[in-house]
Structure formats: structure tokens, C-alpha cells
Amino acid sequence: MSDPMEKLAEAIKRRSAILFVGAGVSMSVGLPSWDRLIRHMEQELGIDPETTKSSHSSYQTLAEYYRLKQGSLGPLRSWMDRNWSVSREKVKESLLHRLIVELDFPIIYTTNYDRNLEVAFELYGRDFVKVANARDISRIAENATQIIKYHGDFDEDASLVLTETDYFNRLSFDSPLDVKFRADALGRTILFIGYSLSDMNIRLLLHRLWQTWRDSGYEKDRPPSFVFMPNRNPVEEAVLARWGITVLSEGSGDPQEALGTFLKHLLDMTQDREGGSEG
To answer: How many helices (H) and strands (E) does the chain have?
Structure first.
């Protein structure tokens, strides 16, 4: 089975694959970009946009400044909660969310704060448990899909990984969710979708996973892992291949359309394989 898609489809069929969902999936249903978050913080704090442009401040740095000036992230979290939500009807119309539910991954990690994945599972009548902290880990049900809110959840301000300090703290990878991810990922295939992979937190996570297998002496036994990119990028492909990650792409100019085509193809392959095994 040399074809990467075949390997991935087989892992999904065996329920030995984890899905990791990034911002691209949420933006497909109309959620704001990080640029809009930056503009909002600038307006609320009375900052000239040219100041942040000239300093190349990230949204994490601005969020750090916001917390220093406002005393907490509460007002910002409330604004994000209102603006990072869409109607249930919008989620139901989303091809990407329907395909994610139908692919039936036992574990889904997401760096998105919104509730769209949970809403999708509710709409299609699939059992799930949301995990955003150590307490939630103790409540995991065996037959329910785990939706791990890796960068936090709007229902709990303290769980949000938003400011620069939050990100730096997570780089130690010793929080309960990090410990869980290492345990989940070591023996399973991982598929990353909806990422530009510019998030240094995620890149370090991938590097650490590769390093763990390399140091174990059993790197050749590592399950294959994949990342979907709408278009080929030889630089990213070479770097990720070094870390044991295979890049899959559809070669389409529209990221959402490309991801939809990819997930539909993957679902068809898992269903074809199931049909063949039953016959």
C-alpha cells in the first residue's frame, strides 16, 4: 500500500487516525480572520494601525498588550464569542463540517475556539465529548468522539491560548492537553487540515513528535502522518518530510474547494474499502 491516500484511508477505517482542525475550516463558514481581530483590538485600545504595521505585531502580542491595559481578556473574549459564532443553519450547510462528521474520527483536535464542530455533531446526531481541561479528560466516554479544544474554548476564559505569554507557556508542552496529545499521537496516524502551518506552536508540536520517535530508536515503526495543503509547496514539503509528515494536496486555487474535494475523496475511499471488506 504505497499510495499515501490509501494509507490514510486504511487508518481511518481502522479508527486509528486523529484529525487536527485549523482555522481554515472555521473561516469556511464565515468566521473572521485574525486580521479582523487585530483591527478590533487596535480600535478598542485606541492604537494607530500604522503603529502595529510598522512593528509587525502579531495578534498574540496585541492580545498581551490588551490584557495588560484592560486587566483581563474578558471583554475581548466576549467580543470574540459574539463574532466567532455562526448560526446552526450555516453549519448545517457546510460541506466541510458534514464530511468531518461522516469521516468518523474517534479523536479530533482543534485550535479553533468556536463551537462549530460541536454544533455539527449535534446536527447530525453523533455523540461527542468536548475536552478543554483536565476535568474534561476524566469525563471522556468510550463510544463518543472526543473534540479536544487544544487552544481553549469560549466557555472558559482561562483555557484560551491567545496572548504571547499563553503561547510561550504552551511551548513547554506539559499541560494536561499536551500530555494527552502525546499519548494519543504516538500510536496513531494524524491528519492536519485547515492550516497554513505558520503557527509556530503547531510546528514545534510536529517537530517534538518526530523527535520523540527518533529518540525512541523505533522511528521506522511510526504510523504515517499527513497534512493537507490546497497547493503544492516544495519548501514546506521538504521540511515536513524531514519530520515524517507527508503533504497531500488537490492543486486547486480555492482552499475551501480543494479541502472539500480532498475530504470527499477520502470519504469515498473509506466507504469503498468498507464495502469491499463486507463483500
So the answer is: 15, 7
